[in-house]
Design a protein that fits this description.
single chain, 2 domains, three-stranded antiparallel sheet, 239 residues, mainly beta, globular
Amino acid sequence: MEEIGQIKFIRRYPVKSMMGEDLNEATIEISGIVGDRIYAFVDDKLKGNSFHWMTARQAPEFLLHKPRFAAHNKAGLPGVVVICPDGREYSVVDKSFEEYLEAKYGYEISMKHSSRGCFDARPISLLSMQTVRQLEKETKLDYLAHERFRANFYADWSNDQPFYEDELLEKTLQIGERVRIRIVKKDSRCVIPTLDPETSVASPVVLETIQKRHKGRTGVYAEVEETGTVRLGDRVVLV
């Protein structure tokens, strides 16, 4: 086995398309990081479509809602409280929060809970800091926040090679003492990485650059082969 890097950041997103949180460690199950994207909102007009989620594609300010875990609610579901950009706080499962979002953004929506996560493709996403910095150069932006890309794991490669993760398709990585993930596909990008995670202001050049230079893909998706705990600074080993 060959050590190829380490974990620089771990991020979890309790509510799909809302603000993520940095973790010092994460429990990894077959379904991904425990607590990742366990809540989501469905655009009722899109029900029946393969992609029916209400996300920052429709309302960029969705990114500015800040979820945090609290005690379990009366229904026994993991308690997540969301702090809105205007300072209001709601339990994610409260009907009043759903009504607040409908009134604010003009969509009819429904809340969905899944302990296995509401994912677009696979339960784990990975991106390297080298790739982020390379895209920063290509877009000529002063600063490109890695949080734009909404990955679970951000790796720091030992070879310092941008887009090295693309070379890991169909390969298994061990992270830390036990966790193993298998890289299964590249991540096709939409408008979300164009949005500043702190302001939701768009920089279209980000997606334009990904489309023109990288065939619309940045980062990779993975499936979990062996569960366990991942911690910041854990070694990433090519199995």
